[in-house]
Automatic annotation (TrEMBL):
InterPro entries: Aldolase_TIM, RibuloseP-bd_barrel, Trp_synthase_alpha_AS, Trp_synthase_suA. It comes from Aciditerrimonas ferrireducens. Belongs to the TrpA family. CDD domains: Tryptophan_synthase_alpha. The active site is at 50 (proton acceptor), 61 (proton acceptor). Pathway: Amino-acid biosynthesis; L-tryptophan biosynthesis; L-tryptophan from chorismate: step 5/5. PANTHER family: TRYPTOPHAN SYNTHASE ALPHA CHAIN, CHLOROPLASTIC (PTHR43406:SF1), TRYPTOPHAN SYNTHASE, ALPHA CHAIN (PTHR43406). It catalyses: (1S,2R)-1-C-(indol-3-yl)glycerol 3-phosphate + L-serine = D-glyceraldehyde 3-phosphate + L-tryptophan + H2O. The alpha subunit is responsible for the aldol cleavage of indoleglycerol phosphate to indole and glyceraldehyde 3-phosphate. This is Tryptophan synthase alpha chain. It is an enzyme of class 4 (lyase).
Length: 261
């Protein structure tokens, strides 16, 4: 059996077909039916889904996703249980895992990448791993055919951004603002500015995340970026008790906004 297509290949093909990319985020285990939520997001038009591995010190994340991690850990969610569930989920879109380097380091880069690949995961984001120290992880991920997704922030100097773009895989995660994840009433000017800086500088799709909170924000970002990553706006609804169908409805609103952009 041929291996699955790489994350970057799937997303680039959709971009070349004229589609704006939608990557919703869900913290694994934050809701009893979180796997059903992933299915609803896929049906609603997600091009890939980012799954957060619960962690006790999620330094990039604001209050909503911190609370989601706390609840998931209290339910007994572990990396092993998440990957086991993903391996049996048979989702129709690529899965990208978001985690912190403590979990990678504890398992070892090669073992961790292999576990992701065995679960069918096709990309990984490790936001607290600096570029200069990421070589062993990137090599292990490449060997396992897991695309290591790297981040570019509004504060990233041009020369450093070029070095990141040269080794990134899957897509480029353009961080929309300086700060932690979370919903904002207004879209930060830096969200479109960072996308403008990166446009045309890489063959990879450029997706803006952090602070993209509404379908209107997504449509605005899509004027300059290849798509968006949306997390806290979805996770908050789960924490407030919305069911998978309600999350699917919200995801369709984001999908429609991107299609109209």
């Amino acid at each position: 059996m041929a291996p699955p297509e790489r994350l970057g290949t799937v997303l680039a093909a959709k971009r070349e077909a004229g589609r704006k990319l939608f990557v919703p985020y869900v913290t694994a285990g934050c809701h009893p039916a979180w796997l059903e939520v992933l299915g609803e997001l896929a049906v609603a038009g997600a091009d890939a889904i980012e799954v957060g591995l619960p962690f006790s010190d999620p330094m990039m994340d604001g209050p909503t996703i911190q609370e989601a991690s706390r609840q998931a850990l209290e339910r007994g969610t572990t990396t092993a249980t998440v990957l086991d569930q993903l391996a049996r989920s048979d989702l129709p879109v690529p899965i990208v895992v978001m985690t912190y380097f403590n979990l990678v380091h504890r398992a070892g880069e090669a073992r961790f990448a292999g576990r992701l690949a065995a679960a069918g995961v096709r990309g990984a984001i490790v936001p607290d791993l600096p570029l200069e120290e990421s070589g062993p992880w990137r090599d292990a991920a490449e060997q396992a055919r897991v695309d290591p997704v790297l981040l570019v922030a509004p504060s990233t100097p041009p020369e450093r951004a070029e070095r990141i773009l040269a080794v990134a895989r899957g897509f480029v995660y353009a961080v929309g603002l300086m700060g932690v994840t979370g919903e904002r009433q207004a879209l930060a000017a830096s969200a479109t500015a960072v996308a403008e800086r990166l446009r045309g500088r890489s063959s990879l799709p450029v997706l803006v995340g952090v602070g993209v909170s509404t379908p209107a924000h997504a449509a605005q970002v899509a004027q300059v970026a290849d798509g968006v990553v949306v997390g806290s706006a979805l996770v908050r609804r789960l924490l407030e008790g919305d069911d998978p169908a309600a999350l699917g409805k919200l995801a369709r609103a984001f999908r429609a906004a991107l299609d109209d952009a």
